Amino acid sequence: MTTIDTNPVQTSKGWNIGLWVAQALLAVMFLMAGATKLMSGSAELVAMGMAWAENAPFLLTKFIGLAEVAGALGLILPSATRIMPHLTKLAAAGLAVIMVLAAGLHITRGEFEVVPMNVILFALAAFVIWGRTNKAPIAPRA
């Protein structure tokens, strides 16, 4: 009698731990950044070094903050609860898009010193997407 392997992706403990670390780092970074944008006014954000907030519409700043907080929660909750864990990859994709747009904004404003952080966060988000798709996917609850 032959058995059929229903999970062709071999998951290692190391990949899973590495991906959880990446997810946690991203979640902390985006939760802090998003909460700051949600709870602070434009003048406060500018004083904290976010010069772009001076000319940005108030609601756009709040929307970005909300998207960052939602993305941070989306990186952790679906995987941790195993309820629709594929949403973790979508949250990471959304945060990657935010980083591409942020890098573009900073480049057009000549704020090149900020772009490396955008690239690092983008790379971590891309790593989560790739890893949770190929190396250590999380199965939904049965």
TrEMBL record:
Regions crossing the membrane: 17-36, 56-78, 90-108, 114-131
Top-rank lineage group of the source organism: Bacteria
Cellular component terms (Gene Ontology): membrane
Signal peptide coordinates: none
Keyword DNA-binding annotated: no
Matching InterPro entries: DoxX
Locations listed in the record: Membrane
Pfam families in UniProt: DoxX_2
Keyword Secreted (UniProt): no
Topology in the lipid bilayer: Multi-pass membrane protein
Keywords, alphabetical: Membrane, Transmembrane, Transmembrane helix
Stated name of the protein: DoxX
